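[step 3/7] fold_predict: job queued, chain A
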Amino acid sequence: MKNIRVIVAVAILAVTFISFKGVQKHKATEKAEIAALFDDCIIDLEAQLQTSLENDKLNPNDIRVVEIDEEVNLGFDAFEYLPIVFDAYASAELTEKDFKIFESEQEVDLGFDTAAYLPSDFDAYAL
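[step 4/7] structure written:
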């Protein structure tokens, strides 16, 4: 009976060590695969950088822009709802004066006077 226990214990230890060895082989395989993927990514990155450097030498006049005019179906005839003399492109030449920019700064109230804590010659907007 004692010999059977020893044999079973040795078998369990052997299986455990064999399984750890399999895990280590698996980790080594994964490391090799990751290194190969990383090397491929580096090669791709270098090719993309080279291509972008070559594109920087491109003349902007050589670029052709193709505009595709697609008709939009609203499900109704918009012409019926517009004035007779309506021209969508009548005011196409806009200037900066046509746009109003609203910038509102909210005043922050800290609950105390900050001037007491700043130097007398402090200017927040000085360069």
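[step 5/7] annotate
Residues 1-19+26-62 form one domain.
DSSP finds one helix and no strands in the chain.
exit 0
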